[in-house]
Amino acid sequence: MKLHWTELLPVDRFSVRTNEQLGEREHKTLTLLYQPLIGTAAISLYHTFWSRLERDSYWSDEGTHHELMVLLNLPLDDIFDARRILEGIGLLRTFRHTGDTSASFVYELQKPLSPAQFFRDDVLSVYLYNRLGKDRYRDLRSRFLIDKIDLQSFDEITASFNEVFSSLHYSEMMANDEMEKTTDLEKDLVGQGQSHAFVIDEDSFDFSLLRADLPVFINKEKLLNKKACTVIQRLAFVYNIAPLDMSRLIQQSLTGDDQLDEEELRKRVQEWYRFEHSNEPPALGLRTPSKENKELNEPPVNEKEKMKWFYEQTSPLTFLKSISDGAQVPHPDVRLVEMLVFDYQLPPGVVNVLIDFIMQTNNMKLNKNLVQKIAGHWSRKKVHTVEDAMELAKKEYQEQKDRKQAGANWKTSPSSKTVSPYVRKDKLPKWLQSENKGKETSALEKHSDLQEEKLEFEEMLKMRKSIRQK
User: Fold this and answer.
1) Residue 79 pLDDT grade (very low, low, confident, very high; cuts 50, 70, 90)
2) Where is the Replicative helicase loading/DNA remodeling protein DnaB N-terminal winged helix domain (predicted)?
């Protein structure tokens, strides 16, 4: 995970620029289409950058990141995370110049996709559908629809360019050309740049394996052009398709001249996903940037470090699937994980710790109310690292254990006539057990499953004996 203080300080200065005029349509698109995917903090940061641009101005005055912290009422690490989310989804480009004592940044706002582009996008439209649900998605999409006009009975009488304008003389064309060359040497025209769509890392899909698996009679260079590769890469990312499976789907989507039919490929991919997984579209999950964490580059040396590494490297859904021995994760659990990542803004590694803690201490049940209660507590405590989450979970477990022990002592005291109930003992991960119980833990580890069952059986006999005596 990138540490924000190594990248950004409150004293670092910044300015905002854009090469597109932003208006009411962009505001609605950001609020209605992008906000459900990236959250309010990222949208607020975008609007704050936008507000620094004066009317009809494309470059702002300089400011400091401390000003952003005051305006947004957010700590710098939240602003850093929001900035990365904007960068990832294609709404912001960031440039940095490092000086002797501080750095300066240029934040270039990117115009959001138009509603038509957004709903035709293979990645964003699918994630928005999953986020909102079928009915809400359709209602929202209908807000951006306009009725088609049947023009078959009409004759188009639109004037052409040469009917309205006359051709320039050669001398006039030369003058205009010279004027453009002399006045715009170091300038960018407004609207000159194309919309900066979000980028998916090229290494996320193995095109070399895909090419090797395609039949030899197919012209691979012609088939896998830049546009086709972009479509393939996005579909593979959204639906988690391996290169060999994608090869088979591509072969089923070719036209007569070995060209890729993009609509047919989308249809085949969706059918494949429904067959292999479920009818629910895939959900958007924030990737854990664990490979950027310097601490994780060193091999783990003990049980705690191994678990920390595992939490950091594993996505929450993969972690849930591993707990259930590869079984399909129930949809309510998928929604619960999505809520922890988006609504409570917990990093995926922290989500894994929370899930493991809840399930290990509650008979492998993922109780929604309990998950929300602990997630709210961790969010207020600003738990952002796996190590902090493990320490907090260990402390919470010890408090629960002390409360149970106090209750058991009271119930078994001579003055109490009630009988201590039988308490099920789950096998807990080693990191969750208190460090000051190390000797006791090491002794328990030496017991076999048969001995544990024997102890539980003896406790049950004692409980029944006490009941008979009563």
Assistant:
1) very high
2) 10-181
